[in-house]
Amino acid sequence: MAEPTAALPKISVVVPVYNGEATIRTCIEAILGLDYPHELLQTFIVDNRSTDGTRKLLEGYPVTVLEESKTQSSYAARNLGIRHSTGDIVAFTDADCVPERSWLRAIVNAIAPADVGGIAGAIEAFRADSPVERYQASRAIRADRAYHHKVLPFAQTANAAYKREVFERIGLFDPTLIYGGDLDFSWRMQSGAGLRLVYEALAFVWHRHRTTYRGLFGLYEKNAIANCLLSQRYHHYENYPQLRTFLYLSRELLRSGLRSAFPRRDEGNSALDAVRYAGEAWGWLRWQVGAVTLPPRGAAVPRLAE
């Protein structure tokens, strides 16, 4: 027997997109096909200065398209979607993700307790045909690993949801954290609002992992920049910008490169490990020389009512 509509909360889904022409179609179609009453579902696609055919493609779908043109930051784009939303719950996924049909119902069940403010959902590989995709599936993009962070759990915004009251109490995402803003928000909710973040494996999305060495390099470059940004706010990351981090990354890059050069001793992932450490070292260097462009920082985190 179907659950009465009156018993379900209204949900707003927010998807930021930047040059997502190749993937946004399957994301939107999956959202439109979700097992959730359409009258209780809002879908906001927030374009963040795309230069490809994304905007033209979006015209054919019954979703609300917004444009965040002022600030190049996926978190600024998410904030715009939050401000336009009216849902009791705001759920987030990315343009390269495909939510499973029962995604929102699983979110509703997990987030229901009064002391729960948000949920982190599972992120599975859309496909894992190449070594690069399999590497990310096992080591890089793991929502369960993020949830078990040694300091506090956090939810990756490829699959996360928060009650509206959370934004009313602690504000929105910090758009100046171009990477790592999902961790910052999860931690602010837990420490500032005293609400729990829970992990729900049944609320899962399929993620299109990067398929090339260049893409893997870029992923770890972003991770390094995120760690540097977070070092300015959290004790756990404060030592990351120090020289010893770069020395460690350089050593591991050399070791991985040498292992990949000798197939008999190679464990199978050494070449990918080398790409990982090279990307992270490059991100660390870019931060040190001031080559990372950041949005101007305001006096405080933006508020919902602004």
Report on this model:
It is a single chain. By secondary structure, the protein is α/β, with parallel strands linked by helices. The protein folds into two domains: 7-207, Spore Coat Polysaccharide Biosynthesis Protein SpsA, Chain A; 213-288, no CATH class. 41% of the residues lie in helices and 17% in strands.
Helix and strand topology:
Blueprint: E1 11-17, H1 24-32, E2 41-47, H2 54-58, E3 64-67, H3 74-84, E4 89-93, E5 97-99, H4 103-111, E6 116-125, H5 131-140, H6 143-147, E7 159-163, H7 164-170, H8 181-193, E8 196-207, H9 213-230, H10 243-261, H11 270-288
Parallel strand pairs: 1-2, 1-4, 2-3, 6-8
Antiparallel strand pairs: 4-7, 5-8, 6-7
Helix pairs in contact: 9-11, 10-11
The largest sheet has its strands arranged as: 3-2-1-4-7-6-8-5
Helix and strand composition category:
alpha/beta
Q: How many strands appear in the DSSP assignment?
A: 8
Count of helical regions: 11
Q: SSE order, as H and E?
A: EHEHEHEEHEHHEHHEHHH
Percent in helix: 40-55%
- CATH homologous superfamily designation of the largest domain: Spore Coat Polysaccharide Biosynthesis Protein SpsA, Chain A
pLDDT averaged over residues: 94
Question: Do you know the CATH architecture of the largest domain?
Answer: Alpha-Beta Complex
Question: What ranges have pLDDT less than 50 throughout 5 or more consecutive residues?
Answer: none
